[in-house]
Amino acid sequence: MGMRMSGAAFGELRGRLTQFAINLDMGITEAAGSGARLVAADAISLAPVKTGRLRRSITTAVGQDGANTEGVVQATAPYAAYVEYGTGVFGPKRQPIVYDHLLHVQIRPGVWVSMYGQQGMAGKPFMRPAWRATLPRVVDGFIQAIRDALGSINE
After folding, report:
1. Do residues 59 and 71 both lie within one domain?
2. Which of the chain's ends, N or C, has fewer CB atoms near its CB within 10 Å?
3. What does the alpha-carbon distance between residue 120 and residue 105 come to, in Å, rounded to a whole number?
């Protein structure tokens, strides 16, 4: 049993596969952008508001990292990481650990940090919960992009 492909059929196949690759690339770029916008919208709604600067600093971009397309969501306010992760030392149930004496903490072998009266602020995550909440919709966007590109092979 064998299969033979003529030059014309091979050319048509190559053309369809080339178009598939172009459609897939465009679809993935669109899915990355719409996914980033979904995450950003959720992050904006979850970000705590005092002045509104943190919410206004949440932006999206789509770019290339080598051969990879990436959707980027970032909060550019200088204090965004402190809001997301908090400051200071916290124990179980995010309760602050407050101490009134010198505390020595080994952060890696041979490296010690000394703190006195360390107190901080618990984090108020907005970016990580937004990512978790929108992940199914982001994935659905990529799946649809792949389906659309595969559908273009039969056109």
Report:
1. yes
2. N
3. 16
pLDDT tens digit sequence for 114-135: 766 556 777 899 999 999 999 9
Closest CA to 134 of 65, 54, 18, 46: 46
What is the pLDDT, as a whole number, of residue 104?
66
In sequence order, the 6+-apart residues with CB closer than 8 A to the CB of 129 are: 42, 46
Residues 149, 106 share a domain: no
d(CA 145, CA 31): 7
Domain that holds residue 105: 89-122
The one-character DSSP state at 150 is: H
CA atoms of 108 and 118, how far apart (whole Å):
19
Contact (Cβ atoms closer than 8 angstroms) between residue 149 and residue 20: yes
> Is residue 101 assigned to a domain?
yes
Do 82 and 76 meet the contact criterion of CB atoms below 8 Å apart?
A: no
Q: How far apart are CA 42 and CA 130, in angstroms?
A: 5
CA dihedral 30, 36, 39, 44 (to 10 degrees): -120
Residue 2 lies in a domain: no
Residues in the chain: 155
Same-domain status, 94 and 32: no
